[in-house]
What we know:
The chain is α+β, with helices and mostly antiparallel strands.
Amino acid sequence: MSGVVGIYSKKRNNVSKVIYYGLYALQHRGQVSTGIAVNNNGFVDYFKDLGLVHEVFSTEVMERLRGNIGIGHIRYATIGDTTTTNAQPLVVGYKRGALALAHDGAVVNFEKLRDELEDQGGIFQSQLDTEVIPNLIARYHKDSVEDAVIKALETIRGTYGLVMMTTDKLIGARDPYGVKPLSLGKFGEDYILASETCAFDTIGAEFIRDVEPGEIVVIDENGLKSINKDTKGKRPCLFEIIYFARPDSKLDSKSIYLSRINAGKELARESAVDADIVIGAPDSGTIPAIGYAEESGIPYAEGLIKNRYVGRTFIEPTQELREQGVRIKLNVLKENVEGKRVILVDDSIVRGTTIKRTIEMLRNAGAKEIHVRISSPPVLYSCHLGMDSPNRKNLIAAQMSKKEIKELIGVDSLEYLSLEGLLKAAGGEEFCTGCLSGNYPIGIR
Length: 445
Ligand code: SF4
């Protein structure tokens, strides 16, 4: 999972500032690195580095990045090390022009393609699966870049929300199953593309529609052109609804917030238990916890407080501080949980380490009973479609039964939402459920 933004403007020469705030809104989709590329009168300029949006772009850099077309990326590492060479956008120059490209997703057949391209003299600068795409476009570009993009996307197998920029066009593309999100908006007279609609709200742009699965949109001085080439039906990632996306976004016209509230309500209907309070594991457990409380009639309370200012690169505590129980990320609101029968709602259990620590903290704060309710089914399979999910051997639900997990984390009861319940909450059947069911729209090989 990563985040992308692209904008085409006929008049504005400072699109990088719009991209900056769009990326800022998408920061939850990746914190490893960020970058912006702009078209400055036919010259592609860019800046990218490791870190968060506000850490990477100084006022001087933003002043330098002038142009009327631009794309931006924030990276969540699925493939490749944490290095600047693996930051996006990727910017390439080739015989027929220049291209900048930013990708959210995964190219499943990249090893084979890279091998073939390298055999033909192709040069790669990063470890990214993404890099085969600009290589293929450069190779296929004869008369029109659109045709080259179509051919390149037909050659790769995988998932993508892509934004690409030439010196006179902004191009957006969504994979044939629509596993990855991409939305289209208008910012005054200008077209804008973003992974999530919350980016439009942040900058004051208007949401127009989602880019359809398999659709390519080309925006230039003649306006917007849509090419539908390779639609295979809709299978958007269900984990966007459960966890990834911001609750104030709409994906495929569905409100993430309402889907999470509904998941909490379904969970309360499926797995009722008597208790004094419902609390949520911050942040993505909070909304289903509210839904659970509404449906069950058991009051919702704040039970866990998260430090919102912990970046990725905080200094690890010393052993002494760790033993003293230093709570860097999360602390318990003892006033609310002491002596209470607590229902703790979380969005998912992946490795099981976070929830185990949270339960210990709740016990130490005097919770009398702890009932864990998970607003998604057990994560049983790894994802090869763009989420950095652990190998199956590290997925706790793939290795242990529900009873064993309940005992390991030390709770009075543990229940998951059923897949049927989650799909009902999300408002449809048409989702990728690979990591929950083993049924992926795109195979590994
Ligand atoms: S396997 Fe899971 S995380 Fe990966 S795309 Fe499908 S639903 Fe999303």
